[in-house]
Design goal:
The chain is an alpha+beta fold. It has five helices and six strands; from the N terminus they run ββαβαααββαβ. The strands form two sheets. Strands 2-1-6-3 form a four-stranded antiparallel β-sheet. A two-stranded antiparallel ribbon has the order 4-5.
């Protein structure tokens, strides 16, 4: 069974509270969206970053722990939409970078259980030598991929954070770069945040004065 989770965002106008984003609206004329669909909250969010695969379950759990600390909530693995403040993005990105190097007792598993960011892992007695893979351990290519993929995803998320913070601190919007299969991407076309804004007048106003709009984030976990 596939496992996916997404950092998703929506953009609303501060003066009116009106949401101006919906998913995949680069060509609204060809899109299935209808005004009455706006009643469904998840239709207002677009994907910032997508992560998939059973080997990313441990990362998802680490992110849930971070979100709980920032929101004083008690979200559990198995729940779908987990809202979090923008201030959590930096620690979530740091956590993602930590999964680019797995602990010795995890890196020969098909599905890692924890990363170095996990406090339980940090309290363990560190090994004095490399661990030896078991006969049923995954091949070396799988192990390398398991540590390489989070690195590129973390770079992508860090780039998005810089773009978001340029709005917060400088009222300057520079569309973030995008990589295939890592969010803000659809087929052969790179999708920017302004591409998820349905109406042209809203896109123009957003790009001109992005601080007039508020962003909301959540973690969308698809089990």
């Amino acid at each position: 069974m596939s496992f996916y989770f997404y950092i998703e965002a929506k953009i609303t106008e501060k003066a009116t509270g009106r949401c101006i984003t919906v998913p995949h609206t680069k060509d609204p004329c060809d899109y299935w969206f209808r005004d009455d669909d706006y009643a469904y909250e998840e239709y207002r969010y677009f994907s910032v970053l997508e992560i998939c695969g059973r080997d990313s379950v441990a990362l998802c759990q680490s992110w849930i722990d971070i979100i709980n600390r920032y929101t004083k909530a008690d979200w559990k693995f198995g729940e779908r939409f987990l809202p979090f403040p923008p201030s959590a993005l930096r620690e979530m990105c740091s956590c993602l970078f930590s999964y680019t190097m797995l602990p010795e007792d995890n890196r020969f598993l098909w599905w890692p259980e924890t990363g170095y960011w996990d406090p339980v892992q940090r309290e363990k007695e560190p090994p004095s030598a490399y661990a030896e893979p078991a006969d049923n351990s995954p091949g070396w290519d799988h192990i390398v991929d398991a540590e390489t993929s989070p690195f590129y995803l973390a770079q992508k998320l860090r780039n998005f954070i810089y773009q978001y913070e340029s709005i917060h601190f400088e009222n300057a919007f520079t569309p973030p770069e995008s990589l295939r299969d890592t969010g803000l991407f659809d087929e052969d076309d790179v999708l920017r945040p302004e591409d998820f804004i349905l109406r042209e007048e809203d896109r123009i106003a957003f790009c001109k004065n992005p601080q007039a709009y508020e962003w909301a984030f959540w973690l969308n976990v698809c089990y």
